[in-house]
Write a structure and sequence with these properties.
It is a multi-pass membrane protein. Helices cover about 55% and strands about 15% of the residues. It is of the alpha+beta class and about 425 residues long. The protein folds into four domains: about 160 residues, no CATH class; about 25 residues, no CATH class; about 120 residues, CBS-domain, CATH 3.10.580.10; about 80 residues, Uridine Diphospho-n-acetylenolpyruvylglucosamine Reductase, domain 3, CATH 3.30.465. It has a four-stranded mixed beta sheet with strand order 1-7-6-5. A four-stranded antiparallel beta sheet has the order 8-11-10-9, with helices on one face. The longest helix is centred in the N-terminal third of the chain and has 31 residues.
Length: about 425
């Protein structure tokens, strides 16, 4: 080493520190890179991204080649700093101590911390570039890395750890995917983000959460006089109506209102004519997940189903549009609904029908009412009060003040919700 000029030794030291910094940066960049972005770039034709994914699929060999060179370079740097220090200041003990401190500082600042910060902040871009030299080094020194990894694999077996456990660590659960969508920021438009989040929630809600309650179903009673039925059909909002005989649980079929038009043009309508136009009713258990029901509608070519409980009692009605609205929001072409009037007044309150679904109230008014029990506001209040309240009774649920405005026929008809303690709509 004495034959090599001090300036050349200093240049070699700088080169060694630069190499060490490169391998430190490469290690951090490869480990911090987003595999899904790399896969997207690879699908678009990026060769660097494909090489990076190939390296990440063999993490043990990737780390082996990086750490092999990093440790060799660091050891060479430490030795060279000691040689330069001895040449300048002699071989006394304090000189060796100073050289140790100096090489530690140089490696920490220039070969470890700074490169790793850069690698972490620009991981996806750097991973595509560093994959080229790393792939070449791995191919040229594959045997050395393989030999070292034999001992690594043996040690992992002794510790009862799987060397391939990292493969499963990069698979995402539904909740993790949901959080990625929520934190996507400007990458996904707000409307698209809302649809994706609603799609994840379809597995957690049932048709009972989105159905129209029995009390709001527009239906035809075949036992009524024909002029009453005709008046009902002339003013109905829907093209398909359930038809029952006497009482709601006795549904005998589904009537397509358009079929009535041709019949009424030819001659007068009769109950027998209506019975002849009915299609078979389609019944759905209340506990059916909404996502499964969407598939059932598609497979059975149905658009409307009657929701029943475990005893066969009619609970409500759900349509294909109800499920789609859970994904993309309310249709402007829907029939008039009390939910359309859900807006805060100037005094910070809103009058709400007791039959409103809690999920819809939470979405429209920015509330946080519990939805793991009763599905409607009426059910929530009755469960909370354990009695049918009189007008004027006030309660606070989930920090939201609620006042009963009108109660009749064993149910709460109207309530007033106050905004003061409620969460504001986003």
């Amino acid at each position: 080493m004495d034959a090599i000029p001090l300036s050349a030794q200093s240049a070699i030291l700088v080169a060694l520190l630069a190499l060490s910094g490169f391998f430190s940066m490469a290690e951090t960049a490869m480990m911090a890179a987003n595999r899904y972005r790399l896969r997207s770039a690879a699908n678009q034709g990026s060769r660097g991204a494909r090489l990076a994914l190939d390296l990440l699929d063999q993490t043990d060999k990737l780390l082996g080649i990086i750490l092999l060179f990093n440790n060799l370079v660091n050891a060479a740097s430490a030795t060279l700093v000691s040689v330069i220090t001895i040449q300048l200041f002699g071989s006394e003990e304090w000189v060796l101590g100073v050289s140790t401190l100096a090489v530690t500082f140089l490696i920490l600042v220039f070969a470890e911390i700074t490169p790793k910060v850069i690698g972490a902040n620009h991981a996806n871009r750097l991973a595509c570039f560093v994959s080229y030299p790393l792939s070449g080094l791995l191919k040229s020194l594959y045997f050395v890395v393989w030999f070292v990894n034999l001992f690594v694999a043996g040690l992992l077996r002794l510790l009862r750890l799987s060397p391939n456990a990292s493969q499963d660590a990069h698979s995402l659960s539904t909740e993790e995917l949901r959080m990625m969508v929520l934190e996507s920021g400007a990458f996904i438009p707000p409307k698209h983000r809302s649809i994706l989040v609603n799609l994840f929630e379809l597995e957690d809600i049932t048709v009972e959460d989105v159905m129209m309650p029995r009390s709001q179903i527009e239906a035809v009673n075949i036992a009524e006089p024909i002029d009453v039925i005709q008046g009902h059909l002339a003013t109905c909002y829907h093209t398909r109506l359930p038809v029952f005989d006497g009482e709601m649980n006795a549904v005998i079929g589904i009537l397509h209102v358009r079929r009535i038009l041709g019949q009424t043009l030819d001659h007068s309508l009769s109950a027998a004519d209506i019975r002849g136009m009915l299609s078979k009713p389609y019944f759905i258990p209340a506990s059916t997940p909404v996502y499964s029901q969407l598939q059932f509608f598609q497979e059975n070519r149905e658009r409307l189903g009657l929701v029943v409980d475990e005893y066969g009692e009619l609970l409500g009605l759900v349509t294909l549009e109800d499920i789609i609205e859970e994904l993309i929001g309310k249709f402007t072409t829907s029939a008039p609904d009390a939910a359309d009037k859900l807006t805060w007044r100037e005094d910070g309150s809103v009058i709400v029908d007791g039959s409103q679904h809690l999920r819809n109230l939470n979405r429209r008014l920015g509330l946080n009412l519990p939805v793991d029990g009763p599905k409607t506001l009426n059910g929530l209040l009755l469960e909370h009060l354990q009695d049918i309240p009189e007008a004027g009774v006030s309660v606070k649920i989930a920090g939201i003040p609620i006042e009963v405005v009108q109660a009749e026929d064993r149910r709460i008809k109207n309530v007033r919700i106050f905004r003061s303690a409620a969460k504001k709509s986003p």
